[in-house]
C-alpha cells in the first residue's frame, strides 16, 4: 500500500479522500491555489503545496505543477477526485511517465469514455442500449438545426467533452436549437477547452439512473447497485438516492450487467459510473460513463457498506477486489442533498461571500439512522466565484425510504448556514412534497413542480400553530430569565397571556404555571420547546413528535425557519395584537424599469444598445458566473434608455445593467 498520496483537487472531495487515507495510515499532500491558502483541505492534509493563482486554469488544471508537487513531497500516487484533471487522459499518461500512480482508470479508458461521441459508439458495440442521435461533429448552428429536425424534437445539445451540466441545452424548436448550439459551444470552450458538440434525442419524462462499477487490474469487475439522480436543475444533480424507487430487480441486473460489459470492453479499473436515461416503461439508454469518483458516491457507500475511496486506493496499489458480485448487497435507503451557495429565490443563481455561520447537523451512525455531512468549508471561510458553489453533501440513511426522507428533512432543519444565499429551503421543500415521497421522479421534476421558480414554502395551519407555540414558550423563557426560582413569570399581573402573530394569523396562549403553555381555551399544550436564551435551534417536542426549528431573535419575536419556510413570529400582549392589523405596510420601491444583475458575475455579451426597442423574451445580455452563461431577457416590450455597464464589467448582485422606458 502507498505511504503517501497527493490529492489533486480541493474542497469537500479533497477532504473526503484525506479522511479515508488517514484511516488507512496513508500520509496526504494537499495542493492549493492563492484563493485556497486557508482552505479546509489544506488544514487537514499532512503537507500542502502552493501551485498557482486562484483561477483553476492557473492552478488545479496545471498538471505539470501538480506533478512537481508530487516530486517535491515524494508522493507515490495522485488521487484526482472529481472535476479538474480527474478525467484527463493526458494527465494520467503524464503521471505514468513520471513514475507516479494515477488513482483511477487507465488513460485509454479515460480517453474512450471521456469523449461522448466515441463512448456511445463503443457502448453500442459492447451491447449497451443507446439513445438515438447524431454522433458526428456539427460545424455550425445551421447544421445543428438541420440535424435536430432529422432526429426529431425535442433534442439534447451536448458538449462532447462535457460534464457537470455545462455545455448542455434542450431544444424544442429551431430557434432554441440555434441558440442552444451557440451557448453549448461557448460554455464547452471555456469549461473544457473543447467546443465539439453533438445532438441526441431527448427522452421525455425521463429518469436519470446510474450504475456504480468497480474493477481491478486482474480482470474482475462488479456493479454496486444504482443511484437515482433524477432531481436536477440545469442538468446538474441536486438530490440523489440509492437504491432507485423505480427499478425492479430484473432491470437492475440488466443495467448492471451491461455496465460491467462496457467497463470490461474498455479495460476499466477503479471506481466508475455508467449513466442511463430510463423511460416510464423501464426502457433504459446509455448516456455516458464517468471515469472517476462521482459526487454522489456516499449514497452507494451507505447502502453497500463499502468505502469507495479505499477501494480505489487498493486497486491502484495492485490489489484484487475482495468481494464477488454475489456478495454485493444493498441494505436500507440513503439520500444525498447537495447544499449549494445559490439563491433559490433568484432562480438558483450563484451566491458568494463569507460563511458567518456554518454548523451542520450532528453526525449520527446507528442501525436506525445515519447522518453524514461531507464538506470542504468551515465557519468564517469564503465562497468565491472561482470554483463550484457546492458547500456540502448532506446524507442520511435509514432502513426504509420514508425514514431516510424524514431523517433528511430533520437534518436540513438543523443545518445552520448564514452569510450566503443557499438552497436549503428548496431542499426542505422537496423533502416534504408528496410526489417526492411517492417516488414519482423525472429529470423535469423541478420545472414541473416549481414552474414559476421557488418563492418559499407555505406551511400548514397545524405547523404554524406549533411554531407559534414554540415562539411563545421561547419568549416566556426570556422573560423569566434571571428571575427568582419561584416559578413566577415576569408578566403583567393583569395580563398572564400572550398572542403570537405570523403573516397576519393569530394564536392566543396562556400559562398554567412554570413552563406549561395553554391554548386559547385553557387546555395545556404538550410542548417541550427545547430552547434556551442564546440557542440558535429549538429542539422541540410535541408529545412524541420532534421538530428542529432555527431561531433568531428579532424585535418583538423570532425569525423561525422550518421545512423551507422562513417566517417571523411576533409575541405580543393581546391588546397590542388587537392593534396590529391597523399598522401601515411598507411598499417596496418599483424596480421594474431596471435590469439588475441577478448574481455576481461578468458581462460577456450585450445584445442591445441605447435607444433599441426590445420585445418580450428578447436576449439583452449574458452574464457569466462560475463558468455558466446566463442569458438575461426582456420581460415585455420596452425601450433601452441607458446602459449602466458594458462588456467585461464585473458586477455584484442587484447592480444595474441597463435602464428601460416605455416603448
Helical run tally: 17
The whole-angstrom Rg is 27 Å
Strand content: 25-35%
CATH class of the largest domain: Alpha Beta
Fraction of residues in helix: 25-40%
Instruction: Give the overall shape, derived from the CA principal axes.
Output: globular
* Total tally of structural domains: 6
Brief write-up:
With 663 residues, the chain is an alpha+beta fold. The protein is built from 17 helices and 40 strands.
Throw out a few tags for this protein.
Dna Ligase, domain 1; eight-stranded antiparallel β-sheet; Rossmann fold; D-amino Acid Aminotransferase, Chain A, domain 1; single chain; 6 domains
How does this model look, in words?
The chain is α+β, with helices and mostly antiparallel strands and 663 residues long. It is 27% helix and 32% strand. The protein has a nine-stranded antiparallel beta sheet. It is built from 17 helices and 40 strands. Helix 7 packs across helix 8 (174-192). The model is unreliable at 482-493 (pLDDT under 50). The protein has six domains: 4-103, Rossmann fold; 106-131 and 207-331, 2-Layer Sandwich (D-amino Acid Aminotransferase, Chain A, domain 1), CATH 3.30.470.20; 133-201, Dna Ligase, domain 1 (2-Layer Sandwich); 333-432, ATP-grasp fold, B domain (D-amino Acid Aminotransferase, Chain A, domain 1), CATH 3.30.470; 461-582, Glycoprotein, Type 4 Pilin, CATH 3.30.700; 594-662, RNA polymerase II/Efflux pump adaptor protein, barrel-sandwich hybrid domain (OB fold (Dihydrolipoamide Acetyltransferase, E2P)). The chain is globular.
